[in-house]
Specification:
The protein is mostly helical. It contains 20 helices and no strands. It has one domain: Growth Hormone, Chain: A (Up-down Bundle), CATH 1.20.1250.
Length: 488
């Protein structure tokens, strides 16, 4: 038990004695003596609604705000801002976001622990909503670059902060369904971003502004509204939950914390130290997870940014069709993602799911890039989109199940998502304007990324299997905890 850090906290926090009592109750019966199974399910549902669903809605608007360049592009942005093959401005504007987004990942996760999730997340969402409104009034693509850098810095703390916050609330084998719910809401709703953008384009000429400008303005306003609403809903860390708008009482919060302690004994953070925080970076698996996420997001960002353009110029669909046909693949991805997550938690497997998705991506990209028939190519879009999007919650959970300790969990969340932002840089640079309409170099890069995912998961599975066998034979504990085993 590591509850020492909360011994002196006030009544708004879960105390060590309360957790000790809850731990004893959990050890006596299947569900514990304090709450019936029905009451426990009700508590978890409340957590799901206040956490996974709310964060998923914010993630939806985050994806819309960072990937609506493709929709604005086919709505006339490139022509209006003089973006062309000579200055490669569209690629530059897409790219600069990820530079600041990558740099600010690791410190941002520290701030969420210090300032509290509700204050931190609501504040940065409100700020980037204001920046998005500014996109609608830029006079040149150079000014848009500056705003994209600011947007990247603000969004840097959101996704790793959400990943970290979710991991603190759920036991390891309840986590992938919640990560999937969070990601599902975001990715499926953002899949309809093309339809939303097409609707906003119809405001063309209103107040003298082009349709593509209204895409940014209205989505920015929506972001600000959601940020204000989220401040009243988002909850803080489980040990602090009694003070989060009376979300849980002390007995309920103690039960939640006790579940985490029983599962992995890392609910309570040690005192923060820069050296101790950064020392976690010496663990090779931290970087393996970052590489896996980088390779996955190379695919997901490439599809998000360039799918409307490929549908328009590569498959010769109309502007309306190109915008609207982006939605069905994301709906399919959401369905597959949640089914996979349900069985991955039930069977307690992670690596095979990741490999299966990567193989699906290889097939889909092959159809998209190397077949002439548009119907078959569009089916390839379904497979490729499903593969990379389903792998995002799978990898978040794969990582979350195999590290312990609050600060190590925080750093690993930051490096994982930091790797994802590098994948965004790759995904936005390998699809070059001069490679239109087939974008073969970009397709080939994404294919190679999926092959590397298979190889890295195979190496991790070998490492984890050997470590688990060592524990079974009474050898050195994994992650410093007796009885802890890696999830394969």
């Amino acid at each position: 038990m590591t509850a020492h850090s909360l011994d002196t906290k006030g009544a708004d926090h879960v105390t060590a004695d309360q957790v000790e009592a809850a731990m004893k109750e959990l050890s006596t019966e299947e569900g514990g003596a304090a709450f019936t199974a029905k009451q426990q399910r009700r508590i978890v549902r409340r957590i799901d609604l206040r956490l996974a669903v709310t964060l998923g809605c914010l993630y939806c608007i985050s994806l819309l705000d960072r990937t609506n360049l493709g929709a604005a592009s086919v709505a006339g942005m490139q022509k209006s801002l003089n973006m062309n093959k000579d200055n490669n401005a569209y690629t530059i504007v897409s790219l600069v976001f990820f530079i600041s987004y990558t740099i600010f990942q690791a410190p941002a996760v520290v701030f969420i622990r210090k300032l509290g999730p509700r204050n931190f997340l609501a504040a940065i969402v409100l700020a980037w909503g204001a920046v998005m409104i500014g996109f609608g009034f830029v006079p040149s693509w150079e000014v848009m670059c500056v705003l994209r850098v600011i947007l990247g810095a603000l969004e840097a703390g959101f996704y790793p902060g959400c990943v970290y916050l979710l991991s603190t609330w759920y036991p390891r084998f309840d986590l992938q369904k919640r990560n999937a719910l969070f990601y599902l809401i975001g990715s499926m709703a953002s899949g309809f971003g093309g339809i939303l953008a097409y609707g906003l384009m119809q405001m063309d000429g209103l107040s003298g502004l082009s349709g593509w400008r209204w895409i940014f303005i209205m989505e920015g306003v929506l972001t600000c509204v959601l940020a204000v609403g989220a401040w009243f809903i988002i909850v803080d860390f489980p040990e602090d939950s009694p003070k989060s708008w009376h979300f849980l009482n002390e007995a309920e919060a103690s039960w939640v914390v006790a579940r985490i302690e029983k599962d992995r004994s890392d609910t309570f953070p040690d005192e923060f130290s820069v050296g101790k925080y950064l020392r976690n970076a010496l663990d090779s698996k931290v970087w393996a997870f970052a590489w896996l996420y980088m390779l996955t997001t190379t695919n997901s960002y490439a599809i998000a940014y360039f799918l409307p353009i490929i549908l328009r110029s590569g498959m010769n669909f109309s502007v309306a069709a190109a915008q609207c046909l982006t939605a069905p693949p994301y709906v399919a991805a959401a369905i597959v993602m949640f089914i996979e997550s349900y069985y991955a938690d039930k069977w307690r497997v992670r690596g095979p799911v990741v490999v299966g998705n990567a193989l699906m991506g290889i097939l889909g990209l092959g159809l998209l890039g190397y077949v002439q028939n548009n119907g078959v190519r569009y089916f390839g879009v379904f497979l490729a989109t499903t593969a990379c999007n389903a792998n995002c919650p799978a990898l978040i959970t794969y990582q979350g199940n195999n590290v312990r300790g609050q600060w190590k969990r925080a750093l690993t969340s930051a490096t994982l998502v930091g790797g994802g932002s590098i994948g965004g840089i790759i995904g936005t640079t390998v699809f070059r304007a001069q490679d239109a309409p087939n974008y073969r170099p970009g397709i080939l890069t994404c294919l190679l990324a999926n092959v590397l995912i298979v190889l890295i998961v195979a190496a991790l599975s070998f490492k984890f299997h050997r470590a688990n066998k060592r524990v079974d034979s009474g050898g050195k504990p994994i992650e410093g905890l007796e009885g802890f085993k890696y999830t394969l």
